[in-house]
Amino acid sequence: MVPEAEARDVLDELQRLRARVPLLSGALAASTDGLVLAHDTPGVEAEGVAALTAAALGVSIRMTDAVGRGGFRELLVRGGSGYIATYAAGSSAVLTLLAEDRINVGRLHLEGRRSGARIGELVDAALARVERPAPTRALPPRPTGTPNRALPQRPT
Question: What is the reported pLDDT for 151?
Answer without folding.
Answer: 46
